[in-house]
Design goal:
Layout lengths: L1 E4 L9 E3 L3 E4 L4 E2 L8 E2 L4 E2 L9 E2 L4 E2 L9 E2 L4 E2 L9 E2 L16
Length: about 110
């Protein structure tokens, strides 16, 4: 939401300047304040609420293959996470298996 005159936006992080006010960045976006617009979170990242200054990495066992998202997707059965902030999951190798979606390793 709006927080006041445009001049006040310069010092506020997680916000962008609009025509006559300073608006919070939406979920899926982040901002460093000042006169720059909000930016989309990159692949492997997300923000789940507005007015954020940085994006969060997807946790291990989850991934995000698109920009500007508000959450992450779970790795499918038969796949495993490679680590935090991933854009994709890795298929289990021969002899490995995962029985639950969103698994970080294998069992």
């Amino acid at each position: 939401g709006s927080v006041g005159p445009l001049a006040n936006c310069i010092a506020l992080v997680g916000r962008q300047n609009a025509a006559t006010s300073c608006d919070a960045c939406d979920a899926g976006l982040y901002g460093g304040g000042g006169l720059t617009p909000c930016s989309q979170c990159g692949k492997g990242q997300y923000t789940d609420s507005g007015a954020q200054t940085v994006c969060k990495d997807c946790p291990n066992g989850q991934f995000q293959d698109d920009l500007g998202k508000t959450g992450c997707k779970a790795c499918l059965i038969g796949q495993k996470g490679k680590g935090a902030g991933e854009q994709e999951c890795t298929p289990c190798a021969p002899g490995e298996h995962s029985v639950d979606p969103g698994i970080a390793g294998y069992g």
